[in-house]
Design brief:
Number of strands: 4
Radius of gyration: 17 Å
Shape: globular
Strand order of the largest sheet: 1-2-3-4
């Protein structure tokens, strides 16, 4: 999966999201990405190496479409960050906070057209990580 120049190629793998209807879109809707180092012979647990956030909605309150660069930040997700400019200022203050860039392409597929992809897609539920459980417990306390 990783080649000699440090790039990770996902070999054409695609991720599908079911988005809220246009009337329910909000500027706060984001997609969070986590880069996880999976457990192996040398490490017995999964480690979150970095994260990034992508805004689902553009300035016209439409779903973002096209090719984008998502900066990935070192470490686990910081749930205290509430604006994209805070993410940018985090790695501008200290370049060591920046891990890499994730390049993505977003295409909107209507539900009518989704039928042709149905047989190729298997949806899985998200398992909450230990860190997230701890941070959620702190917030509810």
């Amino acid at each position: 999966m990783q080649n000699n120049n440090g790039e990770i190629n996902f070999n054409g793998h695609q991720i599908y999201f079911i988005m809220p209807p246009d009337i329910e879109l909000m500027p706060s809707n984001v997609i969070l990405f986590e880069l996880i180092y999976l457990s192996s012979k040398s490490s017995s647990e999964d480690i979150c190496m970095g994260w990034g956030a992508f805004p689902m909605v553009n300035g016209d309150f439409q779903i973002n479409e096209g090719k984008f660069k998502v900066p990935m930040i070192n470490g686990v997700i910081d749930y205290e960050i509430d604006a994209f400019k805070s993410i940018e200022s985090k790695f501008r203050r200290n370049i060591d906070e920046w891990l890499c860039n994730l390049y993505i392409e977003v295409k909107k597929i209507d539900l009518v057209d989704f039928k042709q992809y149905e047989s190729k897609i298997s949806f899985k539920t998200h398992v909450c990580s230990k860190h997230k459980k701890k941070s959620l417990a702190k917030k509810t306390s």
